[in-house]
Amino acid sequence: DAGVTQSPTHLIKTRGQHVTLRCSPISGHKSVSWYQQVLGQGPQFIFQYYEKEERGRGNFPDRFSARQFPNYSSELNVNALLLGDSALYLCASSLADSPTPYYGYTFGSGTRLTVV
Amino acid sequence: GQQLNQSPQSMFIQEGEDVSMNCTSSSIFNTWLWYKQDPGEGPVLLIALYKAGELTSNGRLTAQFGITRKDSFLNISASIPSDVGIYFCAGFLNTDKLIFGTGTRLQVFP
Questions:
Q1: Interface probe with A: pick from B97, B99, B102, B105, most Cβ of A within 10 Å
Q2: Per DSSP, what are the bridge partners of residue B2?
Q3: 3-class DSSP state for residue A82?
Q4: A99: three-class secondary structure by DSSP
Q5: With a cut of 50, which residues of chain A have pLDDT below it?
Q6: Torsion sign (Cα): A105, A110, A115, B2
Q7: Contact A90 B42 (CB under 8 A)
Q8: Is the peptide bond between B39 and the residue preceding it cis, with omega within 30 degrees of 0?
Q9: Cβ within 8 Å, pair A33-B98
Q10: pLDDT digits (tens, 9 = 90+) for A30-54
Q11: B15 to chain A nearest CA, in Å?
């Protein structure tokens, strides 16, 4: 079975532009979460979606938005890009919307976004 | 953003040595996770802990969930070159947000 897949793997954008990142969860997983990892730091929670509804949001500005589709894939959108948005954006999928011994929280390899 | 405090920040050890790293928080967590991240990759789950006091092993790795639910440690025995990477502790705050530690960078020399 395929793991969590993210696209694109690398992206370079100019300040002020917008970007869309995509994530396909593991088959059967209904929850998708997004994280931002700035170089040298641990990942920071951005959003969680479960059954197409937003279940949680981290401390990120409104320039960040996301959605989940009926097939449980997800998009993360960032508007008006800033230099500080340069980071590795990680997607994680899980079976359920709460941690249990079988929730299988699994990360993708991420999208490396560079804003110049 | 909120993060857990990990120590040490980095470790340089010789192959075959044992490694110990820990993670502390001011908040109580109900689930502790330990991840390893290689360059250019996402974090990979090593061990998950669900109960205070729980001690769990996965091969050469052993982790414990602190009694106070505010700390955890990870031990790696007989380190090998492929253990090189960044190790993160993480805990679930509420049920939707995974909070990560600051990371411990491990280098193993032959």
A1: B97
A2: none
A3: coil
A4: coil
A5: 102
A6: positive
A7: yes
A8: no
A9: yes
A10: 999 999 999 989 999 999 999 899 9
A11: 25
